[in-house]
């Protein structure tokens, strides 16, 4: 059995008292992996450094090899800086961060798979702007990453984090749910509220297909990172306000697994269904790869 197989188990960990939940996740995962807690912390710090470095290394002049991706995050930045946006500065930083990281992935930068490369933009897009807005110390960001990892492990063990297995609900959906739980933690929410945020975020993306144009992790993947980040904010705010998920988190994860099993193989990373099957996408595929 996996180390963390249920959200209920994580809630039980939190209810024990003593060490905070993130620390209990650290200790349990370190023991399971056969490393010391210090080695686990070192690895998580390296992951945070990689997120920060990838965000800082964004180059708006770069384009992916296909030419489908690049420069959009900078367009978004200029739009928000113009003062004409609907949502304001903080949301702007979240959206820009998600787009930057997704474009960095498509342009072959070093990123953190969180939980996958195609969903790499969601967690940093919500955590880094939150830290800047609230003056969150690095130690708390590391703790939030352990929270995200613990809940992500449950999704991976009960369902999937693979688009090829369960569609994009298992990639962007899982990343969004992990980010929602981490945000609730950072904002002082309880383990129950973290679970509710995860359940709400995952339900909002239930059934999302994996339909990359020409089989590349670019379109619509990059923009879905922005959508996943916004969904995480929505779910976290609802949970922090006391809005409960009527369906328990573990049952939502099980439902996601069942939905993935029902999906046509054409909607699981094959590049043959969804928007990947559109005439424009098919023309691009033919032009890019040849007949």
C-alpha Rg, in Å? Answer: 19 Å
Overall number of strands: 0
Q: Tell me roughly what share of residues is in helical segments.
A: 55-70%
Largest sheet: none
Helical region count? 13
Uncertain stretches: none
First and last CA, distance? 46 Å
Tell me the count of domains. Answer: 1
CATH class: Mainly Alpha
Report the sheet-strand fraction: under 5%
The oligomeric state is single chain
pLDDT averaged residue by residue: 97
CATH architecture: Orthogonal Bundle
What name does the CATH topology carry? 2-methylcitrate dehydratase PrpD
Element order: H for helix, E for strand: HHHHHHHHHHHHH
The general outline is: globular
Would you tell me the structural class of the helices and strands? mainly alpha
Explain this structure to me?
This protein is an all-alpha fold. The chain has one domain: 2-methylcitrate dehydratase PrpD (Orthogonal Bundle), CATH 1.10.4100. The chain is built from 13 helices and no strands. α5 runs antiparallel to α11, α6 packs across α11 and α9 packs parallel to α11. The radius of gyration is 19 Å and the shape is globular. The chain starts with 6 loop residues before the first helix and ends with a helix.
